[in-house]
């Protein structure tokens, strides 16, 4: 897995987690939903990259 992509995907997951927590604290459903979406998207990207690496060798 490319290191830059790995860092970018982890950053997206972390950003989503922070956004979701902030949404919970402020009771803002839009922020909660956006955070969850960012988290899931980052995790899916990580899974895709891991699958590509598994079939690469």
- The H-and-E topology, N to C, reads as HH
Shape: elongated
Work out the number of β strands: 0
Helical content stands at over 70%
- Taking all Cα atoms into account, the compactness measure Rg is 13 Å
Strand content: under 5%
Mean pLDDT: 92
Query: How many DSSP helices?
Result: 2
Indicate the structural class.
Answer: mainly alpha
The biggest sheet, with number of strands, parallel, antiparallel or mixed sense and barrel status, is: none
Poorly predicted tracts of residues: none
Terminal Cα separation, in Å? Answer: 12 Å
Biased composition (Basic and acidic residues): 47-57
Family: Belongs to the UPF0337 (CsbD) family.
Domain CsbD-like: 6-56
Pfam family, one: CsbD
Q: What does this protein look like?
A:
This protein has 57 residues and is mostly helical. 91% of the residues lie in helices and 0% in strands. Helix 1 packs antiparallel against helix 2. The longest helix has 28 residues, at 29-56. The mean pLDDT is 92.
Essential attributes:
57 residues
Task: Give a summary of the structure in a few sentences.
The chain has 57 residues and is mainly alpha-helical. The chain has helices spanning 3-26, 29-56. This is CsbD family protein.
Topology (elements, then pairings):
Blueprint: H1 3-26, H2 29-56
């Amino acid at each position: 897995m490319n290191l830059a992509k790995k860092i970018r995907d982890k950053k997206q997951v972390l950003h989503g987690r922070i956004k979701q927590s902030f949404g919970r604290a402020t009771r803002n459903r839009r922020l909660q939903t956006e955070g969850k979406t960012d988290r899931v998207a980052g995790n899916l990207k990580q899974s895709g990259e891991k699958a590509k690496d598994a079939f690469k060798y």
